[in-house]
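dumping this here so i dont lose it
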């Protein structure tokens, strides 16, 4: 992912990008997930044509470019 996108995602308090696993991790757990931040991150990824999928903990796994 580009440095610009990583920096945009870094602004969020409840999600963190992990470059080693290529995931955006929900730091609050599934029951306390911040859905506004989640949707904002999904919008950033969609706007930049980045393919991703959701995991069970409302984490986001980056799959590549669309």
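and the seq i came up w/
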């Amino acid at each position: 992912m580009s440095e610009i996108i990583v920096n945009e995602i870094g602004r969020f308090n409840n999600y963190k990008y992990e470059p080693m696993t290529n995931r955006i991790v929900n730091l609050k757990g599934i029951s306390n997930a911040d859905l506004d931040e989640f949707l904002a991150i999904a919008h950033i990824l969609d706007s930049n044509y980045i393919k991703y999928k959701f995991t069970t903990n409302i984490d986001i796994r980056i799959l590549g470019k669309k």
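DSSP finds two helices and four strands in the chain.
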